[in-house]
Amino acid sequence: MSLCAINQVLIKYIFLGIIQGVTEFFPVSSSAHLVIFQQLLQIQENQILLGIVLHLGTLLALIVFLFRDIKQQLNKKIIAYLSLATALTAVVVIFGQGFFESMFFSARRLAFPLFTTGIILLCTKRFGQRAQRNFADLKITDALLLGIVQGFCVIPGLSRSGLTISTLLFRNVQKETALKFSLLASIPAILGALFFKINDFSHLSFFEFRYMALGFLFSFFSSLLALKILLVVIRKTRFHLFGYYCLALALVLWRWLI
Q1: Domain range enclosing 87
Q2: Given this model, what pLDDT does residue 131 score?
Q3: Which of 4, 103, 113, 159 has the highest CB neighbour number within 10 Å of its CB?
């Protein structure tokens, strides 16, 4: 491979890292954007593995961002709820794994899930403004619903952050609590995805490893920025505005790709 070709591939992976970092926590479905841009940039190899590597970058950013909350909010009750949510997510993913993974390879199938995400986000406009339930007031039903929703959000186009936060807002959980509980629940989900694909790393070439390492770094730094922006957005009750973006993207995909 020539130096020019190598540099072009590096730029592609850096770009995908930035896309992953920005869209992972914004409620617009990072997996959908990765599918779209992997097709546009003609990156066909190791698509699922690349997604996991980029998710690891967002995971590290998430731990840094939530470090204080992890120390303050993680008690036996919250850990039990997170464990329950993770178990339910795993059940949904295991039973639907074949169908879910088939959707990672075609942008044609993203329009309806993105449309669904957009509608749900728009419905959050009236929720969370007067909610008083914080971490101490979370209930087992919150964890149950979050875990099930999180499992289905493996489908590209269904935003994990968007739909899990929305679920908690619909249950009158405070906006910032909904955001942080959703983010905490994503940590074991990402680690679980890595566990099931860990053997795939042994098949990477040196060049693929270098490309993915760069994607990881750019995913990390862009995720930190996105998390800070999202916290401001949800505090100002502007979370629903992401719904318009999802609807617009769904329309574009439906019009030009289907």
Answers
A1: 3-256
A2: 72
A3: 159
Structural domain count, the chain: 1
Give the CA-trace dihedral at 103, 203, 40, 162, to 10 degrees.
Answer: 50
Long-range CB contact pairs, 248-254, < 8 A, 24+: 249/28, 249/32, 249/114, 250/110, 250/111, 250/112, 250/114, 250/115, 250/118, 250/157, 251/111, 253/36, 253/107, 253/108, 253/110, 253/111, 253/114, 254/111, 254/115
The predicted-structure confidence for 34-83, as pLDDT tens digits, reads as follows 778 877 777 655 556 677 788 889 999 999 999 988 888 889 999 999 99
C-alpha torsion sign, points 215, 218, 220, 222: negative
Instruction: Kindly report which listed range (4-18, 98-112, 121-135, 150-164) carries the lowest average pLDDT score.
Output: 98-112
